[in-house]
Amino acid sequence: MCGIVGYAGGRQAVDVLIDSLSKLEYRGYDSAGIAVFEKNAIKVEKCKGSLNNLINKLENEAEIRGCVGIGHTRWATHGEPSDINSHPHGNKRVTIVHNGIIENYKEIKDFLVSEGYSFVSETDTETVAKLIDYYYNGNPLETIAKVISEITGSYALGIMFRDFPDRIYAVRKDCPLIVGLSGDENFIASDVPAIIKYTRDYYLLDHNEIAEIRADRVKVFDIRGNIITKERQRADWDVDAAEKGGYEHFMLKEINEQPSAVNMTITPRIIDELPDFSMEGIEAMELKKYSRIFIVACGTAMHAGMVGKYVIEKLARVPVIVDIASEFRYRDPLISKDDLVILISQSGETADTKAALKLSQDMGAKTCAIVNVKGSSIARDADVVIYTHAGPEISVASTKAYMVQVSVMYLLAFELAYARGAIDKEHCKSYVKELRKMPLVIEEAIRLQEKCQYAASKLINADSLLYIGRGLDYALSMEGSLKLKEISYIHSESYAAGELKHGTISLITEEMPVIAVATQKELIEKTVSNIKEVKARGAYVILICDKGIDVEEGIADIIIRLPDADQLLMPMVAAVPLQLIAYYTAVLKGCDVDKPRNLAKSVTVE
After folding, report:
1. Can you say whether residue 485 is alpha, beta or left, with left for phi > 0 and alpha for psi between -120 and 50 degrees?
2. Which of the four pLDDT bands, split at 50, 70 and 90, describes residue 330?
3. In whole angstroms, what is the distance from residue 405 CA to residue 6 CA?
4. What is the band of 606 on the pLDDT scale with cuts at 50, 70, 90?
5. Which residues contact 430 (CB under 8 A, 6 or more apart)?
6. What is the distance between the alpha carbons of residues 270 and 289, in angstroms, rounded to a whole number?
């Protein structure tokens, strides 16, 4: 996830662009850059690191004076964080900033190289800039329409043409982009916070609509060049709230960002409808040689690993051991050079996980890190690294980071199973096809929020509650329980449903809430039996289940039915109502949702 801005007006563009980027830095802080029209040329300044690095660089350079420009803050996807890979990209004729992933950039790059173009960066964005240059015929609208007809993937683009120094252009598909409107100055931005200081009025661009932005006017065109009449939107929140994109809390915002985050994570790793981690240096034939897999993580990341264990063992028939990092490092684990150790960490700085990484390498095992932060310690030290593309996650309670970690585990399971011959090519493609559908299914699950809010209202007076499930649902129950306790401060525990009768059922009291997850059809009869056991002892039952599962009337007090999805992938769907229940419970109790007490986003101490 990256942030882009653009400006055309009477102010000095540098000042506006820097100020606007400061409101979007949560979208990425690997690098920052700007491009401004100055004396009939496009002047570019960019550098690796946070926005402050760019500000310091600008203070030490000759002042750039101009009233039209674009800016970018980067969350790296293609190419490591560096000055060269920073945006903007382009040449003397065309300069662009980009948020998203171009799926066919290799094909485009190969074509342009054959046409005599050379490339300096590792980014997919540079291919778009040079494709625009290749097709440029003096008419920006025709050129942009031609280019977007040839690129596939997701994008929000801010574009400058040297021949048109009084304006910028913008176009989007799948990535957010708005056009800010004012009387004598106009803007583009990835999100409202970037422009709320200057205007509350804006257009929402639809897919492949092309905006032409000048100081005194904005025109929006369809791909054929016809002018479109847009409905003006108005932000009615204050600046502080706008930084959350209009959401009350970052956590809710991040729950709603999960569909795009999953899409950004899985898309670059699917080629010809098969999983492909070759850009990370992971070859299928190498994966199949490992006799065992260890998954080591903490907290929410460990729960993502539990889902991975179930799926890898079910499909690939490889034994998987999931360890809490703080235990793994001290129990003298039996690992060898024939084992693969997967370490999962959103921040890439988790102290116990870093120590587990070093221990694994000392014992000769191959290490693979799944992390969200580019250049983090774990990412640097692991033998191979798989970056998730969740973008910055601000709320302490992890939601979208968990979702993208799970999506990576699924892709790894599919590739491993196919490499080992446990599933054939067609079955592998079928699983990948179902995974590709998940962003839309997750969106549908998010629309269950009203039902989840009602369920949360039944929990706020509870002193304690239980989450139960079997198989994948048990792994999911662990995450649901953690979410609730960490932000609402209600004590909760997760149990394998079949274990209740071995002691825990003694805790059930009248009206004690029990949240049951039942998405696995082959286990539903057993889970229903366990639900009846707690219901018979007075529990207040909230059941989260597959829409296709038939349960008898009265089995639960509240039933939240999930949208349809492949049964193997249901943990990605059921996670959403569990997140929403935790969120609304905390809100109704008046808790600080984004900054729960005693917790930090990145745990860098033991």
Report:
1. alpha
2. confident
3. 33
4. very low
5. none
6. 22
Helices (H) and strands (E) in the chain, counts: 20, 26
List of residues 6+ apart from 447 with CB closer than 8 A: none
Q: Which residue did the predictor score with more confidence, 423 or 154?
A: 423
pLDDT tens, position by position, 88-105: 999 989 999 998 889 899
pLDDT at 26: 63
Q: Which amino acid is at 310?
A: Y
The residues, any chain, with a CB within 8 Å of residue 425's CB and separated by 6 or more, are: 274, 418
Element (H, E) at 521: none
CA 420 – CA 5 distance, rounded (Å): 47
Distances (CA, A) of 539 to 150, 202, 513: 58, 50, 6
Express the helix, strand and coil content of the chain in percent, nearest 5 each. Answer: 40, 25, 35
Catalytic status, residue 92: no
pLDDT tens readout for residues 570-592: 999 999 999 999 999 999 999 98
Token digits of residue 514? 């029990």
- Residue of 57, 146, 532, 601 with catalytic role: 601
Q: 293 with 339: CB under 8 angstroms?
A: yes
Mean pLDDT over each residue of the chain, to the nearest integer: 89
pLDDT given at position 288? 83
254, 256, 258, 259 alpha-carbon torsion, rounded to 10°: -160
Kindly tell me if the per-residue pLDDT of 523 is higher than 80. yes
Q: How far apart are CA 87 and CA 525, in angstroms?
A: 55
Q: Are 441 and 279 in contact (CB under 8 A)?
A: no
Active site residue 2: yes
Q: From the candidates 2, 175, 298, 368, which is the catalytic residue?
A: 2
Q: Report the C-alpha gap between 134 and 50 in whole angstroms.
A: 32
Radius of gyration of the chain (CA): 25
The mean per-residue pLDDT over the stretch 429-452 comes to 96
DSSP 8-state code for residue 43: E
Cβ(442)–Cβ(563) below 8 Å: no
C-alpha–C-alpha distance, residues 111 and 376, integer Å: 34
Contact 98, 113 (CB under 8 A): no
Closest C-alpha among 442, 356, 381 to residue 406: 442
Q: Which tokens sit at 344?
A: 């999962």
Q: How, if at all, do strands 153-161 and 94-102 pair?
A: antiparallel
H or E, element range at 488: helix 472-488
Per-residue pLDDT for 209 more than 90?
yes
Residue 491 dihedral angles phi and psi, to the nearest 5°: -65, 130
